Amino acid sequence: MVKLNRRIAALKPSATLAADARAKELRAAGIDVIALDAGEPDFDTPERIKDAARKALAEGRTKYTAVSGIPELKDAIRVKLKRDNQLDYAAGEIIVSAGCKQAEANVINALFDEGDEVIIPTPAWVSFSAMVELAGAKAKFVTCSEGNGFLLTPEALKSAIGPNTRGIMLNSPSNPTGTVYHAGHLAELAKILLEADLWVMSDDVYEHISYDGPVPHLFHLEPRLRGKGIVFNSLSKTYAMTGWRIGFAAGPAEVIGAASRLQSQNSGNPNSIAQIAAIEALTGPQDEVKRMAEEFRARREIVVERLRKIPGFKLPNVPSGAFYAFPNVSELFGLSYNGRKLTDGDSVAAFLLDEAKVSTVGGNDFDAPNHIRLSYATSRDKLTAAFDRIEQAVRKLRN
Ligand code: GLU
User: Fold this and answer.
1) How many domains does the chain have?
2) Same domain, 246 and 153
């Protein structure tokens, strides 16, 4: 057996991408799987953005760019941060990466070390803890209860902060729960965060998919957090650009400089054509962003209604942002199919794939083993068909 790097040897593949890959494999083998797994809008990238890419290709913009992104894109990101979040950043405080994931990994590696703890309120997106642990730091999970809408309470935050805590990852709207932090919640958390002097990371990738009005920004509400605050965002969900791989981070120049040095050694600039397309995405007309969010809202209604009728699926909280439903499926535990017992969210996801040919993501790697995640970034017809299949499959479960 090859002796691998200690941290890589222990690394699991991303559960969201693994589910997506499995569904794609089955489809390639001719099996009709409905994918409600990875968070990927089914819409095509808007034409104006594709036109900008075609033009960039025709103009031969095919060479290396500045490692941390071309100046015109950083200007567009500055405009976006001002327009959408009322935040002012200078070009030297911004890094563009191959997706938000790379921006996050860069910053986490730049900031945290062995012995450091980073608070991750859970349920949380599967890759936050992996990134923290790859940097050698410790992910400190703080469970947010379903009964409280999966919100991190000030009390839970306070008691999680210890002498080695150096950072926290916040994500609103949340992947996987759809929870949105409103101004009142954020103000309470801000007081504690200021006092604790932590690095506060705000993953905003679902900001435009919010069903109860605009999502307030923590650093706008409490500008003093900006000194140790990092904003992360992506074009993937907002502009249906998952495959283009453009995301960014904004924060203090020293941290962004360190993240850029890391990127210069590990990969280099993000794709040049995608960067130019991103300028058009951020600065052109924003109508399609609203249109897509409205469609997600309509789909959410279908998902909530159908899920709540399936025996064993509980959805006490209606998701108020992002495009995920995160039902509690623990009532199914103990039931069996084909001699296999359901024991946790992952086993329920496996059952749904086997018996309903619907691909979801089990909750285990979100630190929520009583749940499964369903992405509703897919068409209404497919959603309806998926729930028909799930209902039928659940009927086959036996004691
Ligand atoms: N963030 C999306 C998800 O949670 C895309 C896949 C990934 O990178 O995790 O499904």
Assistant:
1) 2
2) yes
